[in-house]
Amino acid sequence: MTHSDLDLADEMLTKSLEINEKLGQKFEIAKDFSGLGNVCICRGDLNTAEDWISQALELFEEIGAMDDVEQLSELLEEIRNSKKQR
Length: 86
Description:
The protein is flat and about 40 Å long. Helix content is 90%, strand content 0%. The longest helix has 21 residues, at 3-23. The chain is built from four helices and no strands. It is mainly α. The chain has a single domain (3-85), classed as Serine Threonine Protein Phosphatase 5, Tetratricopeptide repeat (Alpha Horseshoe). It starts with a helix and ends with a helix. It has helices at 3-23, 26-43, 46-63, 66-85.
């Protein structure tokens, strides 16, 4: 992805998050958090990625989306391992 692609993805996910928060759509909010985390991973910003992914994980746990919990738990572990290697 190019820098402009990441900027566009960030912008669209932020707009989506704002709408989903107004509507109270917890599953969609968690997906937006996850997407923003992935944008940060692509940018190499693992600290911010960890924050977004942690928020997504917490919300997916709250609503019982266990497949997403499993997937993001693994991703969060990978992020933390990558941070340790730096």
